[in-house]
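Sequence in, structure out.
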Amino acid sequence: MKNLKKLTILHSNDLHGDFMAKEIDKELLGGISMLSGYINKVRHEEENVLYTISGDMFRGSIIDSEYKGMSTIEIMNMLTPDVVTLGNHEVDYGLAHLLFIEKCAQFPIINANMYITTNGVRLFKSHIIKEIGGMKILFIGLLTEEVLHSTKRDKLIGSFVDVHEAAAEVGRICDSYRTEDIDFTVLLTHIGFEADIDLANALDPRWGVDIIIGGHSHTLLEKPEIVKGIPIVQAACGTNQIGRFDIIVDTDRNCIDHYTWRLIPIDDDYCPRDLELERVIEKYKEQTDRKYKRVITRLADKYTHPSREQETTLGKLITDAFKDALGLDIMMVGSGSIRAQEMGPIVMLEDLLQVFPYSDEVYRITVTGEQLKRVVKHTLRTGALQGLTEFYQYSRGFEIQFDYENQELIKLSLDGKEIDDGKLYNLGVTSFHFENLKEFLNLTKEEVSKNREPKVVATKSADVLEEYFSKQELVKVAPDRRLCLKQYINVKN
């Protein structure tokens, strides 16, 4: 006779400081209060419940940015997750700050693949074994290689970034703790959905990984993706929903007997509010409202950013502002830097900072026309439309015609004139992309320095936008098409 036990795992990812509920059609949706209410409700209804977060608690809200994650940690402490793995945005305020924040967390933060290069010591605990209902559940945390982009200035930090290296690290941990009689093994990852699939394919079945709960790509699923018998799930992003596994564990064979998985909407139909947590959030909100609820401009229309993998009107607005304010020929902004889906027509400071919450420096680099063509071809390489590489928004006057299917540049022009291979152009990028110039733009600092020494033209990018828009009224985005991709529709479908 089988020895079966019930385990319920609730999971979130990419919360991004999404604390407040939204009113949609007169009903409340999302927010930490109702998310906490649902988690507490399940904890009372079920016997063996664990709540996990697969990275990116930080960055995305005014409250989080104002308090540099300290507010988020206080709120997360009240949410009481059982285990959290790191996301790439956890290092946005600096590695030293993250290590300080970890000390403030009243829950375990795990990561197996960040280490000090000089001695190989991990920065965080690689795993944790949670004992619940007579079961031992092994959690292992893995982070995307993008963390290295954010820690580029710190040469002491390394990571196992290749999927196969990460898989081997999982194998080492699983092998090392098999003597613990682990009943169930969970990978908490922040590497993206496609990488999760690659990871599952690279795992040795004998290691006993049962499920992968991921993050980073903000993937919305209707059902788990099954790879080599391993269910892979994500819960999109924010607090509008939560993933729920109800699993029957065979503790004799240390594996899943059967399970169900659902994506639960966080709404006021059946998610009670956590009033104590609401009071904490309101404390922070009142302080940020006084500072940031002031109108800085009125735009000619509402501008949107519905997808990271396409040219958007909000992307045009932001790049044009940088170009005009800083006197650049071309401004490139990573689509992922634009954190909200819409802005306008009335713009308060909090709206602008939710759209672009970063205070990176802006660098002016001078490139030849030949180098500029190389940049464009690199940024539109295969995978750019699937979210596998950074996608960019471009400023006014820059026109790209590109055959994506055949990876050929058809036309490249600026203000109606073909790009001249021998001419020099001033290109603006944020420090995040400048510090990772080779990987993101296929250039080296040495070669652009030969054209002209790179220069910081703005020390805080968000301040540039605030100043620019506060001096403008009824800004209208041009209807031009800056990025024309042949075979675009076929690629997307």
